[in-house]
């Protein structure tokens, strides 16, 4: 398992993956990227070993936040997905699998929605930036560190 951790630059990732593929002594190595936003098909499409490539995006800071987003390209081999998820679990991480590529993955899409609403609340004069931050650090963030939004909806709504 080889994890690439270069800056979020598509051309750089393409070059790194091409160089890794050219120097690998084994076609059994899984090539993973830490990208937080570039879909794996964008930098693995031209590779001969593209079926061995996957994104395993750890959330910062990974020593406190165990979540890892696992994103296969359309051509990623099922065994690569399984091995990546197993490895992440074995090292104490909490992998989540995206069933298909999407811009922003899961974390960024949720984060962008939250930030957009936070800006609206402040711009409309409803609350201050400090109150938004306090709401997250002393309320919603704490809740969501214990139970997710679907669990919350289940607790708050009959029949769900």
UniProtKB/TrEMBL annotation:
Superkingdom assignment: Eukaryota
SUPFAM superfamilies given in the database record: 6-phosphogluconate dehydrogenase C-terminal domain-like, NAD(P)-binding Rossmann-fold domains
Domain 3-hydroxyacyl-CoA dehydrogenase C-terminal: 104-156
Keywords attached to this entry: Oxidoreductase
A GO MF term: L-gulonate 3-dehydrogenase activity
Annotated PROSITE patterns: 3HCDH (PS00067)
Annotated GO biological process: fatty acid metabolic process
Gene3D superfamilies, per database record: N-(1-d-carboxylethyl)-l-norvaline Dehydrogenase, domain 2, NAD(P)-binding Rossmann-like Domain
Pfam families, per database record: 3HCDH, 3HCDH_N
Ranges for domain 3-hydroxyacyl-CoA dehydrogenase NAD binding: 2-100
Residue stretches in coiled coil: none
Similarity comment: family membership: Belongs to the 3-hydroxyacyl-CoA dehydrogenase family.
Protein name: Lambda-crystallin-like protein
Source species: Nematostella vectensis (Starlet sea anemone)
Phylogenetic classification of the source organism: Eukaryota, Metazoa, Cnidaria, Anthozoa, Hexacorallia
